[in-house]
Structures are given as C-alpha cells and as structure tokens.
Amino acid sequence: MKATLTVLGSGTSMGVPTIGCSCAVCRSTDPHDRRTRPSVLIEYGGKFVLIDTTPDFREQAIREGIHQLDAVLYTHTHADHILGIDDLRPLSFRRSSGIPLYARPEAAEFLRNMFRYIFDANYKFGGIAKVELRTINGVMELFGARFEPVTVIHGDAEIYGYRFGSAAYLTDHSEIPEASFNQLQDLDILFLDALRDKPHPTHSTVENSLRIVERLQPKRAFFTHICHDLPHEATNARLPDKVRLSYDGMKLEFEI
Questions:
Q1: How distant, in Å, are the alpha carbons of 2, 10, 54, 71, 173 from that of 16?
Q2: Residue 70 DSSP one-character state
C-alpha cells in the first residue's frame, strides 16, 4: 500500500530560530532553516497517523491543511513531543469517537497524570479533547498497516521510535540497542536524530548518525531534531547523496 510521510517539524526542542539567538542559521532567509518541533504525519488508505503532538502542532496542522486524524503515536514524554495535545481538540470534535493515543505504559501513565484535566476530569462545559489513551505492548496493526515500536536510548531513558512498512522514524536517540538494529533492516526510508556535530549527552551527532546509515544501508536517510548549528544547504553539501537533512513540509512516498 502506498503511503505519504509529511515532516511536520524537523527542529530540536527549542526550535529554529531559537528565541534570543542571532546566529547565522537563526537569521537565515532559507525557509529550510525554519524548523518547528519534531513530528511526522503518515497518510495511507484514507487514514492519518501522527507521531507526537509538539507545541507547534497547531501551526503545523494549519500549514499542511490537516483536517483529519485517526491515531497518534507517542515516542516519549518530553515537552517538545507532547505539549500540543490540547490542539487535537478541533480534529477530535469531527469524530464520533475519541482519537486513540498510543504510548508505552510508563509514558501513558505520565500523559494521564500530566493532562489529568483531559483524561480524568468531568468538565460540564465541554471543550476538552476527545481522546482515548491506550498502551503499546508490541507490534500494532492500525488501519491495515503494521506499526512496530523500536526501542532506542535517549540519554538514560528507553523510548520508542517506530517502523511502519519500509520506513522507520527515530527522532531522539543517543544510542540504538543492538536488538533494535535487527528491526531496521531493508528500509527504503530511515529518519535519525542528528542534533549537531558537537557531542550531546542525549542526542546523536551527524557523524554518529552517518555511521548508523552506513551500517543499515537504507535506500534513503533523513536527519531530524536539528538545532541551529547546522545550516541546511551547507550541511547537505557535505552529506552523502542518499542522506539529507529533513525540513518542515517535506513529503516522501513509500510502501507501508
């Protein structure tokens, strides 16, 4: 089945431009250097699956003309991946039932506690997002497609990336466990964290992610969660042909 992946956001947790910064990338007029917080949307068979609800989700959804959402998968519970949950409201109101939200068990518990006003409150005036929190305990089938959680290490925490068909999306990782490499074979598209060139305790670097690409040999690889250290055009010029920085609004087709 054909699918389309749209990069809603390709930036790091503070976004690019970064507040208060006057570096060359933050002042760049290249639209590829404007990066909202990291998220992708997968469309196939008339269904739309979102990975993460960033603080920029409203802006991203308006920019891309999103009018339908059938499921949300969460990678982890850092603020740049969850704080847009309230902006699911207008999309949820279009549905007869709540939008299902999927997360690993400890992440689901965190979301329930963090957003108790959504999940546990009985607000008589309405206006609360219609969502249903569900835990992920392994491979899932969503609307005829297989979604496989891939464990990665983000600092000292285990979080999820996802493989779906011939594509995989790993947005925040400092390490990929050996067992997870077995889930990432024979890919058409691979998204990897590549924050910057300088080492970081919780994120991969360009050099490290290039080593992962060399090992896994996907047909195409894209870097995401990019900070203002990496100018789009200049960084692409030094990357191998099959590797590119992703950018907000990028669309890719693949088999799911």
A1: 32, 9, 14, 27, 19
A2: -
- Of the candidates 162, 179, 180, the one whose C-alpha atom is nearest the C-alpha of residue 171 is 162
CA angle in degrees (0–180, nearest 5) for 203-75-236: 45
Single-letter code of the amino acid located at 95: R
- Split into its structural domains, the chain has a count of 1
Domain hosting 221: range is: 2-255
Q: Output the domain CATH number for residue 203.
A: 3.60.15.10
d(CA 172, CA 52): 12
Is the per-residue pLDDT at 121 higher than 80?
no
What whole-number distance in Å separates Cα of residue 163 and Cα of residue 188?
11
The yes-or-no verdict on residue 237 having pLDDT over 80 is yes
| pLDDT surpassing 90 at residue 125 | no
pLDDT, tens digit, 9 for 90 and up, residues 17-75? 999 999 999 999 999 999 999 999 999 999 999 999 999 999 999 999 999 999 999 99
Give the DSSP letter of residue 86.
G
Dist CA 79 CA 234 (whole Å): 30
